[in-house]
Write a structure and sequence with these properties.
alpha/beta; eight-stranded mixed beta sheet; 22% strand; seven-stranded mixed beta sheet; 20 strands
Length: 492
């Protein structure tokens, strides 16, 4: 058997000013051919699980591409074609099955439904090709995605620590269907709820309830997979929002009934999917009153893991104004500042206009650098390997990296965007976050994978940025309407 295994991932924030071009994929890691196999075999990613399954049956493995980029704005036409064409060419050359590690919220200059369009084009070449798909919990599921694959599943964890397991689950289901052991049928639907990412942590309500219902469904006879997607509200496309898909062994009625049951609960919990804000200065003052660290301070509106610029200094400035001490910051994106620090050299004092290099027209904000003086403590190439539970075994490229020590604060400054979901952001440059009183993370929920075990307290600091959870700041043009909470649909 000849199996195509590929990865194509991007979570598109259509409000982000950062361009998702091919270089951005290369900066994270865009691997072609045999290099793709080498990069992801043995990792805890869906692609790693697919490769393991293929090896177990002595299949011939074809890996045309494995590419991912940190979330940003629209994927350019060139980048989309560079992702899709190697996969299509492999299908043209003939394969017996495809196992695809996708995201589900890719919007490009070519199409608002990057994954659905890829699957549709594969089907145009080979209408009967068996296809398994894994999708991120933040997938905006579409009819085009479902119609053009054999079986489909999404992660049940946020942070995403079950990627390998869901890859095994749905990959095995595909192999079983090819062997005639099961007959996958799918049922999907969505509700008009544009839920906010900050409210989608799977250890928290309301998402925990939806995940519990999916797990209960999967224990029923004949159910292959059940997934509740939180969706990605910052992708302004028609199908953004909460959705559910259920895969059963030949039982459409059962799939429909389970789907409807979980969707009904998602609708009933809609108010819990909306984040409640608090004044920044009050939350920083609360942090100052806490004595036992590490205390995690989340600069969530500037989370590059959802497409933010990672150079907004609002939260850092307020922390400095209120005089918090023994602080580590991970991380500020400012390649120019890194270059200045490289010129100055380790041990020397520099004054920087840090961050604030990027305007954010979608939220009417202009970049505001923060003048700051400190000592160059570390200079690094920014390369390290994830050892924590999310993206385990994957190599990270933060680009040229430096640490600025102001006395009260150590700031990790990077040249490539990277969300701090693993302590390697700090340990790779000699900072031990477990010994800090405060750890500032430009993250929303993924930080929990690496940092929750050491936290004595966690506070969300509502700063500025294009990953804001304040709907009043965002102008939606393409999402289906009416939709809650943009429209107050309160019927039972």
């Amino acid at each position: 058997m000849r199996i195509l295994i590929a990865m194509m991932k991007h979570e598109t924030n259509t409000f982000s000013p950062i361009v998702a071009d091919w270089k951005r994929f290369q900066d994270w890691g865009a691997h072609l051919g045999e290099d793709a196999l080498k990069a992801y075999e043995g990792t805890a990613m869906p692609m790693g699980a697919y490769i393991e399954l293929a090896r177990s049956i002595d299949a011939e493995i074809v890996t045309p591409v494995a590419a991912e980029a940190m979330p940003a704005g629209l994927v350019t036409k060139e980048a989309y074609n560079n992702l899709v064409e190697p996969i299509l060419e492999a299908v043209r050359n003939g394969v017996d099955a495809a196992m695809l590690d996708l995201h589900g919220a890719m919007v490009s200059e070519v199409t608002p439904d990057g994954e659905g369009t890829l699957l549709e084009r594969i089907r145009e070449i080979d209408p009967d090709l068996p296809i398994a798909v894994t999708l991120d919990l933040h997938c905006n599921l579409t009819d085009k995605m479902v119609r053009n694959c054999t079986t489909l599943i999404g992660y049940k964890t946020y942070p995403h620590v079950d990627m390998y397991e869901v890859g095994l689950q749905i990959g095995q289901a595909l192999l079983d269907s090819i062997a005639g052991k099961v007959d996958p049928v799918m049922s999907w639907g969505n509700v008009p709820v544009l839920s906010q990412t900050l409210c989608q942590g799977t250890d928290d309500e309301p998402m925990a309830t939806l995940i519990r219902l999916c797990k209960e469904a999967e224990r029923e006879e004949g159910v292959i997979a059940a997934t509740a997607f939180g969706g990605f509200a910052l992708a302004d496309m028609k199908d953004s929002g909460n959705s559910v898909i259920v895969v059963t062994d030949g039982d459409q009625a059962k799939a429909d009934a389970i789907r409807d049951r979980i969707l009904a609960k998602a609708w009933a919990l809609r108010e819990d999917f909306v984040y409640k804000h608090a004044p920044l200065e009050e939350k920083v003052a609360e942090a100052k009153s806490l004595t036992e660290g590490p205390i995690l301070l989340l600069d969530h509106a500037d989370n590059c893991g959802s497409g933010a610029t990672q150079d907004v200094m609002t939260v850092i400035a307020e922390i400095m104004r209120q005089g918090l001490e023994d602080v580590a910051v991970g991380a500020v994106w400012d390649p120019a500042a890194v270059q200045e620090m490289q010129k100055a050299g380790v041990g020397n004092t520099v004054t920087l206009k840090l961050g604030g290099k990027t305007d954010m027209p979608s939220i009417n904000e202009v970049g505001e650098p923060l003048e700051i003086t400190g000592t160059v403590k570390v200079i690094s190439n920014g390369e390290w390997t994830v050892r924590g539970p999310m993206y385990t075994g994957v190599k990270v490229f933060m680009g040229p990296t430096a640490v600025l020590d102001t006395g009260n604060m150590e700031i990790v400054i990077v040249s490539n965007h990277h969300e701090p979901w693993d302590q390697g952001v700090f340990t790779s440059v000699g900072i031990q976050p477990e010994h800090k009183r405060y750890v500032v993370l430009k993250s929303r929920i993924h930080y929990r994978a690496g940092f929750a075990p050491i936290a004595k307290a966690t506070l969300r600091l509502d700063g500025k940025g294009v990953t804001t959870s304040d709907n009043k700041l965002l102008e939606y043009k393409n999402v289906r309407r009416p939709i809650y909470p943009l429209d107050l649909i309160n019927e039972a």
